Amino acid sequence: MKTHRILVALFAVVLLASCSSTKTTTAAAKETESQNLGNLSLLDRLRQQSGLQIRGNGSSAQVFLRGVSSVNNPKQALFIIDGTQVGDFSQAASTINPLEIDRIRVLKNPQDLAQYGFMGAGGVIIITTKR
Q1: How confident is the model over 87-100, as pLDDT tens digits?
Q2: What is the distance between the alpha carbons of residues 36 and 66, in angstroms, rounded to a whole number?
Q3: Alpha-carbon distance 55 to 34, whole Å?
Q4: Rounded to the nearest 5 degrees, what angle is found at the Cα of 127, between the Cα atoms of 124 and 121?
């Protein structure tokens, strides 16, 4: 019985050590991932966001929210940088340094899009910088 208790206690210690090691590794991976994102262009970071459709390359690319615009008359997503509406992707790309990007949030919910009126009808992409 005493041997059984010792084995259970030893198992618990090994299990706890394993869990804390996994948490540390996961946190380190997330930190490395966020550091690597700084090296990507705005367009490459947008390609990592779900629900976006991107046509073209470079500053002339067009960004659309999947499922929001009609097929025959698509409307580009509205970009908002630090609370200021800047327009479409080409205007956003010329306004922001990709190294300053802290977070990108894509608004897809119709209730969220409604506050931007006609300008936000094609979707809204909110970019927060590290300033």
Answers
A1: 999 999 999 999 99
A2: 26
A3: 25
A4: 5
3-state secondary structure of 78: strand
Q: What is the pLDDT of residues 30-77, one digit of tens each?
A: 333 444 555 789 999 999 999 999 999 998 999 998 876 555 567 899
Tokens of 10: 């030893």
Residue 106 class from Cβ within 10 Å (0-12 exposed, 13-18 middle, 19+ buried)? middle
**Two tokens, residue 9:** 């206690």
**Structure tokens, 58:** 């470079």
Q: Strand 124-129: give its sheet, edge to edge.
A: 84-87, 78-81, 124-129, 101-107
